């Protein structure tokens, strides 16, 4: 497997701060190339309204927000659990300024995957994972969580499970695909597949999922499915041995790497001539890369691509600094993958940062 070396790197600043929708924060920042000169970028919790100068988003008036929907709290007018935008094809060096958000007929930001009647917004959140564009359809894996009344920000939630939603390119409105009458395909206690999706060269989609072990360590697992069978849960096979051996039981899936939060990326890198995985290393502030000759590994030990520097704030925030959601966006890479563009989130700033990493020879 290819050794990773970093020649130079720089943080290019926060993305999407300048927007016409009074959007004042969002996390996640996944992207899917659509093959028509555009890409779908999509996000997790998205805040509409205004920030109070000199005050934490999460502690309005000095009091920690509860687990409920933030809509109407302080100067926050609306919380969407997930939103998206269409980005014109460009490299990361352009600073990604040619985009338009997906809106309702009134011109307001809207959710891509909406709450169902049984999901009160004060309790349940629906967060998009990664996905893939197949023909006229776009598929988004998603995570459903329950917010908890107790526990520290920003981790006061429990995972309920992961599922798959589908929408057309024209409408970009996503419906959840049910299996056996249920929307959640992988319950809590199983890897939450959809963390990232790789289109293999062997006519398989490789779908990665993360699970926290009893030791508190988060580990990645991998499934595969034919693109034509993506909507059929029984068609998914899970890596159950390094041989590799593929089986039908997600509970038997083996770990292929560890140390990532719930988000990451995996892509083929032509410059390296191998697969490249990028993720935050726990909550250390380091974004790391790993290489492998096959989508399932074995994966190299992590190499630091970028050390995130927490912002200097002029006000207190009584929770630990959290930097997360590190991933690569290979469709905006330069020089055949020698120049990488990564994003990450710092919880208090709450906008995606764009990082340029130039790999060495």
SSE layout and pairing:
Layout: E1 6-14, E2 23-26, E3 30-33, E4 38-43, E5 46-49, E6 76-80, E7 83-88, E8 99-101, E9 124-134, E10 137-147, E11 157-168, E12 175-176, E13 186-187, E14 192-199, E15 205-212, E16 218-225, E17 237-241, E18 245-247, E19 257-258, E20 265-269, E21 274-280, E22 286-292, E23 303-307, E24 323-328, E25 339-346, E26 352-359
Antiparallel strand pairs: 1-26, 2-5, 3-4, 4-7, 5-6, 7-8, 9-10, 10-11, 11-12, 11-13, 14-15, 15-16, 16-17, 16-19, 17-18, 20-21, 21-22, 22-23, 24-25, 25-26
Question: What's this, in brief?
Answer:
This protein is mainly β. It has strands at residues 6-14, 23-26, 30-33, 38-43, 46-49, 76-80, 83-88, 99-101, 124-134, 137-147, 157-168, 175-176, 186-187, 192-199, 205-212, 218-225, 237-241, 245-247, 257-258, 265-269, 274-280, 286-292, 303-307, 323-328, 339-346, 352-359.
What do you see in this structure?
The protein is an all-beta fold and about 350 residues long. It has strands at about 5-15, 25, 30-35, 40-45, 45-50, 75-80, 85-90, 100, 125-135, 135-145, 155-170, 175, 185, 190-200, 205-210, 220-225, 235-240, 245, 255-260, 265-270, 275-280, 285-290, 305, 325-330, 340-345, 350-360. The chain is globular. The protein starts with 5 loop residues before the first strand and ends with a strand.
